């Protein structure tokens, strides 16, 4: 059976503006894809450990040395809005 | 067919070092081919002719001074998810349409230092999500063997550029098959090495535990040479393996006598085209004639790999693509506050497939569903790895078709995501297990479209995989070139 999804809720979590058409299409397509994907539960027994990386690595460290960073002006050149060497964004906090 | 741009990098390297030709001549041959065919193939999103001419002249000076690594003077193309300093890198997306990276990805840095010549950036599915190149925000790529067909994806532009003789070799990325599948559909060699052997620094992330840079070439020897230039430990990528830089062309000619080849029995079932099965069977017979011991092998959980992949990859993507928020780079659509700005920016900037995967991944990772989807998929990943370990207890390499079908018409599968995802059913397991896998052309089907055969080996078995592929390539003698090029000669 296709999986029922609360598209509005997931879109809010993903910070994604969707049209009504997109929502309707996604509800149908994701329902079908998830129905197929749910097959994983048929074989994923409790005693099988999960794998996050095929070739596990842990605690990859480097010497704590100062190295040159990227040039500030080159990095900021890609930003939509900049002020005093900083990224500028619309207001974040509500002001009473 | 005698143009320089149709030769392999190995052949060009010999002629360059013998001073029979110059790298400027090789470059002009490639640029001429791009001029002649790319309005129809549409492999390139951006050409870097001026950069290439400067680099070709510098390569000629190095060759004159007898300081020429194998990559010196060889024109190449890079998939547009690979960061190039000062050259626009779009990921095939509107959201990064004007993004100019302030640094080079490590593989291009290594190629550049060795005298590589950058032709430009190639088209791809948006953020490497797709199997047909139709998800690019900048239009499809056309398969040089039949312009009405897809070249495969997501690295469709890189595959097509090498097939059409526009680039001598190219880099792509392979998260679920995005190098091997387009190589198969476009009739070239596509190699995805062991996860972590090539640094991902500067590769714009899709699914970090699966993303692997891979090569497109017109011979196995070129694949080994290109890998030798770009592989090896990089401190800029924490998942980069502690492997030295080495020459992977050594031992290529040792043959397959005594090696054990396992035929993946699950890869010859329903949904595999008869023309694909027949061509891969020829390849299996050739390996047997060359002295390899051929037996049946099984990956019992292969049926579940696709399901696991379409939970793991979108989950990682939904997290990685959170960075496109209209703040530091790329598109911004204004809003009353930051959240509205981000939500509108992402709604306007991403295409349909990327939205689909972000939504899928966000759902699979969301509270209440994480264990049922993402957690279970990670367990299946363990089962896939165990399948391979068991199989490699009895054989040295596994053989299967690369893709169940040959190239399909542009538009044929765009409205059916599940049908599109099935293209990657034989390539995904090697991403889940991190193992090296190569696709080489095995022949043509009844419609004259190329078929690819895939060889997979255990982690870090690159020398064996390349050696078998090289022997098989020699025995198959696949010399066909796309019809488009025949038309040029006429």
Q: Helices and strands in order, then pairings?
A:
The complex is a heterodimer of chains A (96) and B (490).
Chain A: H1 7-13, H2 20-37, H3 72-76, E1 82-83, E2 86-87
Antiparallel strand pairs in A: 1-2
Chain B: H1 9-17, H2 23-41, E1 44-47, H3 49-64, E2 75-79, H4 106-113, E3 117-122, H5 156-163, E4 169-174, H6 180-186, E5 189-192, E6 212-217, H7 220-230, E7 260-264, H8 274-289, E8 293-297, H9 302-320, H10 338-349, H11 352-365, H12 371-391, E9 397-401, H13 417-421, H14 428-433, E10 437-444, E11 450-456, H15 462-476, H16 483-489
Parallel strand pairs in B: 2-3, 2-4, 7-8, 7-9
Antiparallel strand pairs in B: 1-3, 4-6, 5-6, 5-10, 9-11, 10-11
3D architecture notes:
The complex is a heterodimer of chains A (96) and B (490). Chain A is mostly helical. Chain A has a domain at 7-42: Orthogonal Bundle (Histone, subunit A), CATH 1.10.20. Chain A contains three helices and two strands, in the order H-H-H-E-E. Chain A has helices at residues 7-13, 20-37, 72-76, and strands at 82-83, 86-87. A two-stranded antiparallel sheet of chain A has the order 1-2. The model of chain A has no long low-confidence stretch (mean pLDDT 92). In chain B, helix 8 (274-289) packs across helix 15. Chain B is an alpha/beta fold and 490 residues long. In chain B, strands 1-3-2-4-6-5-10-11-9-7-8 form an eleven-stranded mixed β-sheet, sandwiched between helices. The longest helix of chain B has 21 residues, at 371-391. Chain B contains 16 helices and eleven strands. Chain B folds into two domains: 4-255 and 457-489, Amidase signature (AS) domain (Amidase signature (AS) enzymes, Alpha-Beta Complex); 302-379, no CATH class. Chain B starts with 8 loop residues before the first helix and ends with a helix.
Which features does this protein show?
heterodimer; A: 96 residues; mainly alpha; two-stranded antiparallel sheet; B: 490 residues; alpha/beta; Amidase signature (AS) enzymes; 2 domains; 16 helices; 11 strands
